[in-house]
Every structure is written in C-alpha cells, then in structure tokens.
Amino acid sequence: MRVLEVQSVTKRFGGLVAVNQVSLEVNEGEIFSVIGPNGAGKTTFFNLLTGIYTPDEGRILFLGRDITGTTPDKAAKLGIGRTFQNIRLFGAMTVLENILVGRHIHTRVPYLHALLRTPLARKEEKKALEEALSLLEYVGLLHRKDELARNLPYGEQRKLEIARALALKPKLLLLDEPAAGMNPKETEALQEFILKIRSEMGLTILLIEHDMRLVMRISDRIAVLDYGSKIAEGKPEEVRKNPRVIEAYLGRGAAGGAA
C-alpha cells in the first residue's frame, strides 16, 4: 500500500526555489531516505509534508487523502509524526511529561470533564499514563521517567524525541537527522532502534540523514536532492554509484574519477 505520494511539489521563498518539482512515493513498511548536500532542500521538504509550509505547486497525498496545505496539528492527527534536526524537547519537563504531551491528541475528554476531573477524565488520565509508561519501557527510558529531559545524555534525548513522536501513534514517522551529533556507538544503537520500531510497530519511516553508513545500512530506497531538485532515486547500491550523486557530494569531475 502507498502511504505517501508527493506530486511535483515546489516551494519558493522569494526568488529562491527551495524545493523544485519533487515527486516520490513511499510504500507501507519502507525506510525511505532523503539525502543531499547541505542546503539541498531536505528539511524544507519535510516541512511541506507536515504543514509547516504550504507548497506553491503540486500535491501531497497521505494514505490516498490530499493533505496539501494541511496544518501541523491536523497532520499529526492524521498519523504523521516527526522529529527535528535540532532537538525540540520540553527541557524543563520530565521524560514522562514529554511523552504525555505527545499523546494528548488521542485524549477524548470534553473540556468540562477535564476541568472538573470527572470519573471519565480520571479514567482517560489513567489510560494515558499507562500507555506513556509502556512506551517508555519499550524504548528503554522507563528508568529515566522522572528526570528532566534536558538532563538526559544526548543520545537518550534523541531517543526521547522519537518516543514522543511515537506517542502520536503515527502511520508515517519522519526523522530529520536523528544521528546528528552522535558518536559511533550511539549511532549504532540508533540504527538498531529504528529497525526495531519499523519491524515491531509496523511503521513506515521517512529519513533525512547525513551519516551515509547509517543510510546505506537501513534504507530500502533513497532519493537524492540537490539545489531543491531530485537528481536520483533507487536502492542504496544504485544511488551510491550514480554519477550525478557523486558529483553533487564530491564536486564536478568526481563522477568520472569514481567510474
């Protein structure tokens, strides 16, 4: 089943074309990576998918539904979760509270019930707490539940941000450079974690990442952006050998030398 279909999407900022006629399809259960040099338009592309920006041209379909120009909250409710290149945890809140924030869109309690803390509201709070604790246990952070998020080691902050996105119960998870700033041991643990949540939770994952070892190890397919345009797409080995990709990363003339 096709989870995401992007049709000739374009985004301009004044005279700059940040994303230029990009099309791609992501199938259920895939790990699909979007790579490219700095400034290639990758994060702008993610922002279009999640409603932070609205495309100037093109369409975005999620599970067959046109979500072009949606808002971030509606994208989350539909089942699109994401993390950010720069970690955006609530540092002054506990690990558990961060997960509860992520789960709030699934709360089904009318405002008045929540205000008066009726039995219905208390029942929903208990359910939310149980699910949050279960998720923390699953991702290996249960022992940290009462610590402030800002006090976690860097690798665990990254994992917590992913866990908060998982609390949304997404069908599509967008990870924006999750290995940024990690040491090799943390990156290896992240790789295992991503593969685990894909297989055990049945998630479809769209990944932006600069760590090529990680990308090549876990991706089913890869699309490459350069100056906002898609210059290649295929399986990891196909993309690795593509002359246009080599040129984009290493400069003109590198493709011929790599042949």
UniProtKB/TrEMBL annotation:
<protein>
    <submittedName>
        <fullName>ABC transporter ATP-binding protein</fullName>
    </submittedName>
</protein>
<dbReference type="GO" id="GO:1903806">
    <property type="term" value="P:L-isoleucine import across plasma membrane"/>
</dbReference>
<dbReference type="InterPro" id="IPR032823">
    <property type="entry name" value="BCA_ABC_TP_C"/>
</dbReference>
<keyword id="KW-0547">Nucleotide-binding</keyword>
<dbReference type="GO" id="GO:0005304">
    <property type="term" value="F:L-valine transmembrane transporter activity"/>
</dbReference>
<dbReference type="InterPro" id="IPR051120">
    <property type="entry name" value="ABC_AA/LPS_Transport"/>
</dbReference>
<dbReference type="GO" id="GO:1903805">
    <property type="term" value="P:L-valine import across plasma membrane"/>
</dbReference>
<dbReference type="InterPro" id="IPR003593">
    <property type="entry name" value="AAA+_ATPase"/>
</dbReference>
<dbReference type="GO" id="GO:0015192">
    <property type="term" value="F:L-phenylalanine transmembrane transporter activity"/>
</dbReference>
<dbReference type="GO" id="GO:0042941">
    <property type="term" value="P:D-alanine transmembrane transport"/>
</dbReference>
<keyword id="KW-0813">Transport</keyword>
<dbReference type="GO" id="GO:0005886">
    <property type="term" value="C:plasma membrane"/>
</dbReference>
<dbReference type="GO" id="GO:0016887">
    <property type="term" value="F:ATP hydrolysis activity"/>
</dbReference>
<dbReference type="Pfam" id="PF12399">
    <property type="entry name" value="BCA_ABC_TP_C"/>
</dbReference>
<dbReference type="Pfam" id="PF00005">
    <property type="entry name" value="ABC_tran"/>
</dbReference>
<keyword id="KW-0067">ATP-binding</keyword>
<feature type="domain" description="ABC transporter">
    <location>
        <begin position="4"/>
        <end position="252"/>
    </location>
</feature>
<dbReference type="GO" id="GO:0015808">
    <property type="term" value="P:L-alanine transport"/>
</dbReference>
<dbReference type="GO" id="GO:0005524">
    <property type="term" value="F:ATP binding"/>
</dbReference>
<dbReference type="InterPro" id="IPR003439">
    <property type="entry name" value="ABC_transporter-like_ATP-bd"/>
</dbReference>
<dbReference type="GO" id="GO:0015188">
    <property type="term" value="F:L-isoleucine transmembrane transporter activity"/>
</dbReference>
<dbReference type="InterPro" id="IPR027417">
    <property type="entry name" value="P-loop_NTPase"/>
</dbReference>
